[in-house]
Write a structure and sequence with these properties.
The protein is α+β, with helices and mostly antiparallel strands. It has 10 helices and 26 strands. The strands form 6 sheets. The chain has an 8-stranded mixed sheet with strand order 14-17-18-19-20-22-21-23. It has a 6-stranded mixed sheet with strand order 13-11-10-24-25-26, covered by helices on one side. Strands 4, 5, 7, 8 and 9 form a 5-stranded antiparallel sheet that branches. The longest helix has 19 residues.
């Protein structure tokens, strides 16, 4: 189900610019698309609420709240519209994002700026196309999903997209792309992961650097690309209306299309997306926000739930339809488990939506019941079944962050339902989680999870606890090149942003590489775009 567009856009009572700072130059999709589609505009301010981000020498401080890098970063504040570089503008006119790949099919989501027609030619060898789909009719500003089926398992396909304005002239071909169906056990493959991109923050996210990072990830020819969350913030929406809540998803389409045209994209929920059960259960604008963002997410991207090939969330909610919040699948010799921290917790997990959230009972952080924050019974029992029944050699688990619920990796892993202990000794795991076999960390350790990947804290850090590697992800777009919140990580290998992780999976090992990314002006002999800043290998734990 889709909610009908608001007859009157509701003002966001929580919106406001920072005190003493002039209204920020619009950073959204204005120059290429806003006039065409009539999308609402999101505003920001140069100086958001300050935290302990800090700068200098590529290092930053911590702080347990949500402010961190909203203080001015080392790099200059980016000013202008947050759009692709001019050389890549064609990806804004028509974006293609793949998703929901199985052993027999893949879904292509196409979104055109203006009415267009397109064809897709594909085959199993470069430049040799044996099948043609289309012509496909692409309405102005409306996503079209094309299920490419009747594919062979464990096969790499090559395809060429051709497009033209509706009924006008010859079709123009784009460069050839590729994708893969489910890899068989014993196969090798690559996947890539990005941390929080935060395009709404001009002090720590530059569109040109973000584009360079995604192009570098695309060049790795990954089978899929995982976004760990905080990529679609609606915190600065001026109105609580469908158009305003859709805007961050439209902004990301051409960027994620740079890698998504040949790697299935998986979206995970972060706190700044504001899609949560807590918001959904409110009776004010926060419910509209939760509904609007999740509908936009599932309409504009080929998201994944319990779809047969994938196991996961089968919840359906009024005004949203299928939630599609968490999922798991096997690819080659690896199990992938993507958790959701927000849609199954009746308590507020992190930062709420605007000032009104702080007025809500239970949001006083000094007196909050931290045991109330949870992934929920259904998701936990699904996680338990998924881990204990999998025979994969490698097991990877992903979440926006350790549900402690604060900043840090192994430093937070002993707390509440994640580790079983109250910070002040309050409560016991058996008392607070009846019917749960073990806390989440102990469950991962028991079933030999190789790596737990998380975002939220905006730096690179590799740690280990009880045989499980905790891997914090760097930002892909931070032109200040800072390691925020590093004081919340008391151990491990810590490095600043920007970049992404490339993971090469083989039957013998999983190799994790931190690929650093820089703007051309920031490259030196020591800081080269595409350099490997850190790497390590993990042997199969379930061989």
């Amino acid at each position: 189900m889709r909610p009908t567009p608001d007859p009157v856009a509701k003002p966001n009572p929580f919106f406001g610019t920072s005190r003493g700072v002039p209204a920020f130059v619009r950073r959204q999709f204005v120059s290429l698309m806003a006039l065409t589609f009539g999308w609402a505009v999101l505003r920001g301010a140069e100086g958001d609420k300050k935290g302990k981000g800090g700068g200098g020498k590529g290092k930053g401080g911590g702080g347990g709240g949500g402010g961190d890098d909203q203080a001015k970063a080392r790099g200059p504040v980016f000013q202008g519209d947050y759009v692709l570089p001019a050389a890549l503008a064609d990806f804004a006119r028509l974006s293609v994002i793949l998703g929901r790949a199985t052993d027999k099919s893949v879904t292509a989501s196409l979104l055109a700026k203006e009415a267009m027609e397109a064809t897709i030619e594909l085959g199993t060898a470069p430049g040799k196309y044996t099948r043609k789909l289309g012509p496909l009719v692409l309405p102005k500003g409306e996503p079209v999903e094309v299920v490419i089926d009747q594919l062979a398992a464990n096969t790499e396909y090559f395809y060429r997209l051709q497009s033209r304005k509706a009924g006008a002239g010859a079709f123009v071909a784009r460069p050839e792309c590729r994708f893969a169906t489910q890899r068989a056990p014993g196969s090798s493959f690559v996947f890539t992961i990005q941390g929080d991109s935060h395009p709404e923050r001009p002090q720590s996210s530059h569109p040109d650097l973000y584009a360079r990072t995604l192009q570098a990830a695309s060049a790795d020819r990954p089978d899929f690309h995982i976004c760990i969350g905080d990529d679609f913030s609606v915190d600065k929406a001026r109105t609580v209306a469908r158009e305003a809540l859709t805007e961050p998803y439209l902004l990301q389409r051409p960027f994620l299309g740079l890698v998504g045209q040949q790697a299935g994209v998986f979206l995970m929920n972060g706190n700044h997306e504001q899609g949560s059960l807590f918001n959904y259960r409110q009776t004010d604008e926060r419910r509209d926000v939760a509904v609007g963002v999740q509908v936009a997410r599932n309409r504009l991207f080929p998201t994944t739930g319990a779809d047969g090939f994938y196991t996961g969330c089968d919840t359906t909610l009024p005004d949203i339809g299928r939630l599609k919040s968490y999922c798991a699948f096997t690819w080659g010799d690896a199990l992938f488990v993507l958790l959701d921290n927000y849609w199954h917790s009746p308590a507020l997990v992190d930062s709420g939506f605007g000032a009104k959230a702080k007025e809500t009972k239970g949001d006083d952080k000094k007196n909050r019941d931290w045991w109330g924050i949870t992934i929920g019974d259904a998701q936990y029992q699904w996680l338990k079944r998924t881990l204990e029944t999998s025979k994969a050699k490698h097991k990877f688990v992903f979440a926006h962050h350790v549900l402690g619920s604060g900043r840090g990796g192994v430093d937070e892993a002993d707390l509440y339902e994640w580790g079983g202990q109250g910070k002040k000794g309050e409560g016991t795991f058996k008392e607070k989680r009846p019917g749960w076999e073990l806390p989440i960390h102990q469950l991962m350790a028991k079933h030999k999870v190789s790596i737990f990947f998380q975002g939220h804290d905006h730096l690179y850090c590799q740690q280990e606890k009880d045989g499980v590697i905790y891997q914090e992800l760097p930002m892909p777009s931070d032109h200040g090149y800072i390691a925020y919140n590093e004081d919340r990580y008391q151990s491990g290998k810590k490095l600043p942003s920007a970049g992404y992780l490339r993971v090469t999976v083989t039957p013998q090992q999983a190799k994790v590489e931190y690929v650093r990314c820089f703007l051309p002006k920031d490259e030196t002999k020591e800081t080269k775009h595409g350099m490997i800043a850190h790497a390590y290998e993990v042997k199969p734990r379930n061989a």
